[in-house]
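Whiteboard transcription, Tuesday session. T.W. wrote the structure tokens on the left side:
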């Protein structure tokens, strides 16, 4: 198995579970563009149109986590932890009305097998 590229803190996992109860299946996308581009956006499955430039990089709490391929190339030397903090981000993400926002905490890593290629990941 490929080591997990993306994980979540206990607080983020709790919020994800709450959002799944309220909204059904959800997914995450990290675009690198406008609207809090380095913040993960959380959507109901089917509410966000994935494109040819998006790549699945893992799952957290049973939710797919997608990222723009160019952003993935730039962040290839890092692993990410999704966290949640008080405050409203400038986004359409599902947690925004709760006055919370997801953010990424990153850590450098020596190398990650499978970067830029699809593969199974280990969920933490």
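and on the right, the sequence the group agreed on:
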């Amino acid at each position: 198995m490929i080591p997990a590229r993306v994980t979540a803190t206990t607080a983020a996992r709790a919020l994800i579970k709450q959002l799944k109860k309220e909204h059904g299946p959800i997914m995450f996308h990290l675009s690198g563009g406008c609207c809090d581009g380095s913040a993960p956006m959380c959507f109901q499955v089917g509410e966000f149109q994935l494109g040819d430039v998006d790549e699945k990089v893992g799952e957290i709490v049973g939710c797919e986590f997608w990222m723009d391929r160019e952003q993935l190339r730039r962040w290839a030397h890092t692993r990410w932890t999704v966290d949640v903090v008080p405050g409203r981000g400038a986004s359409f993400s599902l947690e925004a009305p709760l006055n919370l926002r997801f953010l990424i905490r990153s850590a450098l890593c020596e190398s990650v097998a499978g970067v830029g290629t699809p593969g199974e990941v280990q969920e933490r």
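Someone added at the bottom: The CA atoms of residues 17 and 42 lie 12 Å apart.
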